[in-house]
């Protein structure tokens, strides 16, 4: 892995918090993700399942974690299973985790090779009444592929049909949404790498540059700073491309007078950042562009103030909509009649700002978190309002990642990344 070693204290604490919420005499199982094939002998780069990483720090394929806090065999309360490594594998694929290295990474003392799985599981299952299975219940989940976790769950429940079944996901949704300080430090590192990339491209952009050339500058800076690369598929949208919310082609020339909307960010140690900025190709905003830009920035600042403990996500978005409506009236994009006659299920402001303002972020870009429950300290949210005007050939989105505090306004992990229109212009014209 490119990232520096993470303190195993984080994973020890995460497991302690998880098992505290398990039913008596229950066994929880977590699997690594598959390595997905492309064709022939090609595969996609491995991405670890975030839940087993959160609970163990193991960032390797074909790994299994079992947690059984009530197990009468003290050695089987926490167990890792790994693919056995050897000199041949080290030569062809690189060094895999040894048992000793896995213990150092995770804090788990009992590590078996996968070949011992069924034998060890049989003993553990004989003591257990309930299996905790790990299903994907994120509100945005839309998974057509059967995962390694799915296959294991099928096998487990077929082999042990008399056990009760419980779900890990509701526990993890709550735990993962509240970040430990070690996690916040890792997310800050991801944001710092993102800052380096953004500052690099501010000095690179000019009329005639292509969107993919900017993408190349960013990936260079990210990998140079120990990131695997982009936290998600990058959006580099010049001109009217910005009015396609998930424009990812990045294959157009950036022209004088246009704006470029960026939704780009680095990951670090599997933790994500999520940045949006909008900059002028020629280094200066027009008066109209700056007016819209400042309106979006104002909405972002006011929305950020609302992210405090106790806030309800749905109510928050209603209030942000009211703030945006006031700005759109000032810009002449809406008039009073538009607002008075609006459909309450699709308010007038949605014509120009059609997406949500905030989502949880952490190990996933759209991270775990139960949106019907009040916000808490150490939740991390994006704040990303936008105004999109196809008739005028540009769209503007601004986004930072912020940590909710016990008291006062959130702490902005992207506080050092330029955002004010005048600052953007000054940097681009140095």
TrEMBL record:
Principal EC category: hydrolase
Protein name (Swiss-Prot/TrEMBL): Xaa-Pro aminopeptidase
Source organism, top-level taxon: Bacteria
Catalytic activity entry: Release of any N-terminal amino acid, including proline, that is linked to proline, even from a dipeptide or tripeptide
Pfam families: AMP_N (PF05195), Peptidase_M24 (PF00557)
Cofactor: Mn(2+)
Residue stretches making up the Aminopeptidase P N-terminal domain: 6-142
PANTHER family: XAA-PRO AMINOPEPTIDASE 3
UniProt GO MF annotations: manganese ion binding; metalloaminopeptidase activity
Similarity field: Belongs to the peptidase M24B family.
GO biological process, one term: proteolysis
Organism of derivation: Polaribacter aestuariivivens
Record EC number: 3.4.11.9
Key words, A-Z: Aminopeptidase, Hydrolase, Manganese, Metal-binding, Protease
């Amino acid at each position: 892995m490119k990232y520096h070693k993470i303190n195993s204290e984080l994973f020890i604490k995460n497991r302690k918090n998880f098992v505290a919420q398990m039913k008596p005499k229950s066994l929880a199982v977590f699997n690594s993700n598959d390595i997905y094939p492309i064709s022939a002998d090609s595969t996609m780069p491995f991405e670890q399942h975030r839940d087993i990483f959160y609970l163990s720090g193991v960032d390797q394929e074909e790994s299994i974690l079992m947690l059984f806090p009530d197990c009468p065999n003290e050695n089987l309360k926490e167990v890792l299973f790994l693919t056995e490594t050897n000199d041949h594998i080290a030569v062809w694929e690189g060094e895999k985790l040894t048992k000793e290295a896995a213990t150092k990474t995770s804090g788990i003392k009992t590590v078996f090779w996968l070949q011992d799985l069924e034998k060890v599981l049989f003993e553990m299952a004989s003591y257990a009444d309930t299996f905790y299975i790990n299903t994907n219940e994120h509100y945005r989940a839309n998974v057509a592929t059967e995962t390694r976790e799915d296959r294991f769950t099928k096998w487990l429940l077929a082999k042990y049909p008399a056990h009760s079944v419980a779900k890990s996901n509701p526990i993890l949704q709550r735990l993962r949404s509240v970040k430990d300080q070690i996690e916040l430090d890792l997310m800050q590192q991801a944001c710092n790498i993102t800052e380096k990339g953004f500052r690099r491209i501010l000095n690179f952009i000019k009329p005639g540059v292509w969107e993919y050339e900017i993408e190349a500058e960013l990936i260079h800076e990210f990998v140079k700073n120990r990131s695997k690369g982009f936290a998600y598929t990058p959006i580099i949208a010049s001109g009217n491309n910005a009015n396609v919310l998930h424009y990812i082609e990045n294959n157009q020339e950036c022209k004088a007078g246009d704006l470029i909307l960026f939704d780009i960010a680095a990951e670090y140690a599997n933790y994500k950042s999520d940045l949006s900025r909008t900059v002028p190709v020629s280094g200066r905003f027009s008066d109209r562009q700056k007016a819209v830009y400042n309106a979006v920035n104002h909405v972002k600042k006011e929305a950020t103030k609302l992210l405090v403990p106790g806030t309800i996500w749905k109510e928050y978005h209603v209030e942000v909509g009211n703030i945006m409506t006031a700005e759109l009236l000032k810009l002449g994009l809406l008039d009073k009649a538009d607002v008075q006659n609006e459909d309450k299920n699709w308010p007038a402001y949605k014509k120009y700002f059609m997406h949500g303002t905030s989502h949880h972020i952490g190990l996933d870009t759209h991270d775990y978190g139960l949106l019907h429950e009040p916000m808490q300290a150490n939740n991390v949210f994006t704040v990303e309002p936008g105004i999109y005007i196809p008739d005028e050939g540009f769209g503007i989105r601004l986004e930072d990642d912020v940590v909710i505090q016990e008291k006062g306004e959130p702490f902005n992990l992207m506080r050092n990344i330029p955002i004010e229109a005048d600052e953007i212009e000054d940097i681009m014209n140095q």
